Amino acid sequence: MKRMYFIYFIIALFFSIIPATAAKNTFTLWQLPSQINTIGNSYIILTRNGKVVVMDGGVKEEAPYLRGFLAALGNEVEAWFVTHPHPDHIGALTEILKTPQGIVIKKLYQSEFSPAFRDTEPDCAPAANAYYDALAALGVPVTNYATPGAQLDIDGVNFKILTVTNENIRVNPYNNSSMAIRVWDKKKSILFLADLGLESGDLLLNGPYRKDLDCDYLQMAHHGQRGVSKDFYRTVKFSACLWPTPSWVYNNDAGNGFNTHTLETVEIRELMEELGITRHYISFEGLSKIE
Ligand SMILES: [Fe+2]
C-alpha cells in the first residue's frame, strides 16, 4: 500500500513539474503588412504585461496604419528600435514624431549617424536629417549605441544589439550600418538583420556574436535580396523566414511577370528551399502574428 502511495506521489510530482518547466511565451510579434506594396520594414512586439515595442515602422505612407495599430495597443510605446535612417524604415516614425497625435514614445534605441556619414548617400540624407531633427524636437529619450553587445530586458523579453553604425564602411554605408538585433525569450528567438549588406553580414558572422545568430525566426536581410551573403544563410541555423517584402520584390517582377527584374530575391528563395525552410511570413501577404 505504501508503495502505491509512493507511485501516486511520483506521478503527482511529475505533472506538477511539467507546467513549471515548460517554456513560456512572453511576447507576441507582428510583422506589419505592406500598405502600398513598396519596400518597408515594420514590426511590433507586445510583451506579456502589455508593453509595446516597435522595430522601425515602415514608409511615410504607412504612418496612418501604424498609428491605428498603436492606438489599438494603447498608444504608449515602451521602446522604439530604429535600425538605420533609410526612408523605408524611418518614414512613418518621422511623421509620428512630427505629430504624435497621442502616441507616447518612452524610449528610442538607435545607433546615430554623424551628419557627415548621412551625406554618404546624398539622396537619403534629407530624410535622415528630418528624422533626427524631429526626434530631437520632440525630446524623446534616446539611447545611442556606439558599440555592439548591449543587452536589455523589456518585461521579460531580451534584446541584444549585435551590430551598430560602422562609419568606416564606404560600400552600401546606410544598410551596412543597420543595427541587427536578437530578440528572445524561453520559447522563441528572432534575429532581425534589418538591411545588413554583405560586408557587415560577414563581419557579424565571423565576429564575437556568432553564437547569437542561430534562431527560430530570421528576418531576411535587406527585404530578402542583396542583403547578407548566401554563406551567412547557409551557416546560421533557423527554421522560418520573416520577409519584409512587397510582392514585386518577392517575385523579382519588373512589371513583366515572375523573375523579370534584376533583384536577387528568387535566388534567395531557391536557397531557402535548398536549406529546407518551408515556413515563410511575407509582408505583402498580410499581417503575420507569431506567438
Ligand atoms: Fe530597407
Descriptive account of the structure:
It is built from 10 helices and 16 strands. It is an alpha/beta fold. The strands form 3 sheets. A 7-stranded mixed sheet has the order 8-7-5-3-2-1-16. A 7-stranded mixed sheet has the order 9-10-11-12-13-14-15, with no helix packed on it. Helix 7 links the parallel strand 12 and strand 13. Helix 2 crosses helix 3 and helix 3 packs parallel to helix 5. The chain starts with a helix and ends with a strand. About 5% of the residues have low confidence. The protein binds fe (ii) ion (FE2). Fe (ii) ion (FE2) binds next to helix 3.
The outline comes out as globular
**CATH homologous superfamily classification:** Ribonuclease Z/Hydroxyacylglutathione hydrolase-like
**Series of secondary-structure elements, N-terminal to C-terminal:** HEEEHEEHEEHHEEEHEEHEHEHHEE
CATH fold category name: Metallo-beta-lactamase, Chain A
| Bound ligand species | fe (ii) ion
Largest sheet: 7 strands, mixed
Oligomer: single chain
Poorly predicted sequence stretches spanning 5 or more consecutive residues: 6-21
Tally of DSSP β-strands? 16
User: Termini, distance in Å?
Assistant: 46 Å
CATH architecture: 4-Layer Sandwich
